[in-house]
Design goal:
The chain is α/β, with parallel strands linked by helices. The chain has 17 helices and 12 strands. It has a 7-stranded mixed β-sheet with strand order 2-8-7-6-5-3-4, with helices on both faces. Strands 9-12-11 form a 3-stranded antiparallel β-sheet. A two-stranded parallel sheet has the order 1-10. The longest helix is centred in the first third of the chain and has 24 residues, at about 95-120. It starts with 13 loop residues before the first helix and ends in a 10-residue tail after the last helix. The model is unreliable at about 1-15 and about 15-40 (pLDDT under 50). Bound molecules: pyridoxal-5'-phosphate (PLP). Pyridoxal-5'-phosphate binds near residues 222 and 285. Pyridoxal-5'-phosphate binds next to helix 7 and helix 8. This is Aminotransferase class V domain-containing protein. It comes from Microthlaspi erraticum. Keywords: Pyridoxal phosphate.
Length: about 475
């Protein structure tokens, strides 16, 4: 993925906004807007963002907490929050002008930036939506209509991973199961030894979807699973889907852009969604849904936003750009975010690479101290890694991990999600609890040391999860 500059007349020039405030009425005239300087080229080595500037960008984070959970809600730098606030004020100052003159073209600029970042072919392949949950509803609603309108036969299959995200699974239940589709869940191993295991199990899942002459109408594949977190070999799985005659492939990459390589031509899926608020520094919440133009319904054809407005029927990208009166400011700062990431060496690719290296390093430091193991090979982690907890903590259920998570928050001021992996038959004392650590630009080694030391302290105290029952 290349580091790009946004289009010349990008919505708000990041550097410009930091050197000049708006006039006293707080709103620039349209002509001021056109006069703005062009986007500066990527910085030279000496002008990369400094550690103290990074600290200041995230100074709104609670300083008392070790926040090693970027994966759940992401983060947004204060300079972008300030720009978002400017957009909100522009709307509130003169809503009619904003609505008639600015909103649509500015959303189109954001879409153009995303299109270039993800190497899509056409502008109208990219729609901006709130989040991955909304994108899943759009794709699955289309699947439901195909069942209801008789284009898919009752019993045709939708194949997804057992580790698909909870709300996406609910969406499959709401749209596909209710419409008569058969849902096949591909069970994945954890810990994962190699990508081949996943490929083999996925092939088996497709085969069972095709038994008795049924067809697999949709494969829903995560790019990075949430819990446990593993990078899925999607390119290979998409290729297999094509060979096996699967109608459509939808990649749920809620942890996509800024976390893994996101290149639409390379991946080749029909639909691909990624949040921008997780690993691309957007304010909550903004995501894109890519719909391949050549695909059935792609590029907006038979896809519709679940919130119907007067834009219904004008193509998904346009439908998504107006879902009624609301705050669109998170979508409008996308070009400025690109400028923000370009202040780092290598832009978003550089950030992604360094986050990966650092999270692996931190994971290895923790397993060494706790005498445990990582949940998958390092090449299958992105900016998050699963780290086994000491067996003696006695993690034995989903409720244990919730309680342990709360304990780490309340007693040690650490934000960390934990996964319970039920023991398999015949296993004696396996590692049943795994923390999912993330690394983002604001993190410091001390955050992970605090986690390491907290867990070691619990071990020394002879702590057992069952002691939290009372
Ligand atoms: C794989 C996956 N899909 C979907 C989602 C939902 O994302 P959002 O809440 O932004 O819609 C998540 C959230 O973490 C996720 O990890």
């Amino acid at each position: 993925m290349a580091s790009l500059s946004p289009p010349e007349e990008a919505a708000v020039s990041y550097h410009h906004r930091h050197s000049k405030r708006y006039p006293s009425n707080g709103v620039e005239s349209v002509s001021d807007f056109a006069k703005r300087p062009k986007i500066s080229p990527p910085p030279k080595q000496s002008s990369f963002i400094s550690p103290s500037e990074i600290e200041s960008e995230f100074s709104h984070h609670d300083p008392d907490f070790a926040r090693v959970n970027n994966g759940s809600f992401g983060c947004c730098p204060s300079s972008i929050l300030a720009l978002q606030r400017d957009w909100q004020l522009r709307f509130l100052r003169q809503p009619d002008r904003f609505y008639f003159d600015e909103l649509k073209p500015k959303i189109s600029e954001s879409r153009a930036v995303i299109k270039r970042l993800i190497n899509a072919e056409h502008d109208d392949e990219v729609s901006i939506v709130d989040n991955a949950t909304t994108a899943a509803a759009i794709v699955l609603q289309q699947t439901a209509w195909a069942f209801r309108e008789g284009r898919f036969e009752k019993g045709d299959a939708v194949v997804m991973l057992h580790y698909a995200y909870g709300s996406v699974k609910k969406s499959v239940e709401a749209y596909v199961t209710r419409s008569g589709g058969q849902v096949i869940e591909v069970q994945l191993p954890f810990p994962v030894i190699s990508a081949d295991e996943i490929v083999t199990r996925f092939r088996n899942g497709l085969a069972s979807g095709k038994t008795n002459g049924r067809r697999v109408r949709l494969a829903l594949i995560d790019h990075v699973t949430s819990m446990p977190s593993v990078v899925i070999p999607i390119k290979e799985l998409v290729k297999i889907c094509r060979e096996e005659g699967v109608d459509q492939v939808f990649v749920d990459a809620a942890h996509g852009i800024g976390c893994v390589d996101v290149d639409m031509k390379d991946i080749g899926a029909d639909f691909y969604t990624s949040n921008l608020h997780k690993w691309f520094f957007a304010p909550p919440s903004v995501a894109f849904l890519y719909c391949k133009k050549s695909s059935n319904g792609g590029g907006g054809g038979d896809l519709h936003h679940p919130v119907v407005s007067n834009e219904y029927g004008n193509g998904l990208a346009v439908e998504s750009s107006w879902v009624g009166t609301r705050d669109y400011s998170a979508q409008l700062v996308v070009p400025s975010i690109l400028e923000f990431v370009n202040r780092f060496e290598g832009g978003i690719d550089g950030i992604k690479k360094r986050n990966h290296e650092r999270v692996v390093e931190m994971g290895q430091m923790l397993v060494k101290s706790w005498g445990t193991q990582l949940g998958c090979p390092v090449e299958m982690c992105a900016s998050m890694v699963m780290v086994g907890l000491p067996v003696c903590l006695g993690v034995g259920s989903d409720s244990d991990v919730m309680k342990l998570r709360t304990l780490l928050r309340e007693r040690f001021s650490i934000e960390i999600p934990i996964y319970f992996r039920p023991p398999e038959e015949g296993e004696i004392d396996p590692i049943a609890g795994y923390v999912r650590i993330s690394f983002q630009v604001y993190n410091k080694v001390e955050d992970y040391h605090r986690l390491r030391d907290a867990v070691n302290q619990l071990v020394r105290e002879g702590f057992k999860c069952m002691s939290l029952d009372s």
